[in-house]
Amino acid sequence: MRPAARLLTLAPALLLLASCGLAGPGPRETSMDAAGADTFEQDVATARTLTEAFWKDRFARQGLAYRPISAFIPYDGRSGPRCGDESPVPNNAFYCPAGHFIAFDRVWMEALREEMGDGSVYLIIPHEFGHAVQAQLRTEFELNVQVELQADCYAGGTLSALVESGQLIAQPGDADELLLSLEAAGDPTDDWLDPSAHGTAEQRQAAFTTGYENGVGAC
Length: 219
Ligand SMILES: [Zn+2]
Prior knowledge:
binds zinc ion, mainly alpha, 3-stranded mixed β-sheet
């Protein structure tokens, strides 16, 4: 296990959360803390390791066996793996149920991290693992927005658990930045029948906060 990673700017990640399965919005201007000591690759590896360890433990406590993802695949632009009939798109991260893997455009993610801080990595990856958990629990939803809001909630619950255990260190002001970013990442309208809907700003903030404050069990 790596030493505690620094959660610097939580803001950027939420923009990414808006885009899983879709081309996301471009990077946004924001203030940036001093860069952490870890490299991009280390942050990505740490986020994956800590998130899967969290869920493995969580499943075990409930008498369930967590099934690790089969692959964790960085790609460039359109060079990523297909998921069923769907081609990968640039500027995205996604979980593929068909192959039980997570893939992400590393150029895009690294650019976000460079511009806004490493918090992006520590939010995007737990959100995508949230989808991997949904698949294992066979959680049924009627609407895509429900799937996405639960993944936001799972990301919040995962991050708070990692902070509470000392594996991640949150910086003062991160919570406010997070809520502002969720606001920016929200859908412009509450079109909950839209198959690509991720939820409005208020819905995403509420979902993430529920998980962060009450744990993944509240999701
Ligand atoms: Zn998602």
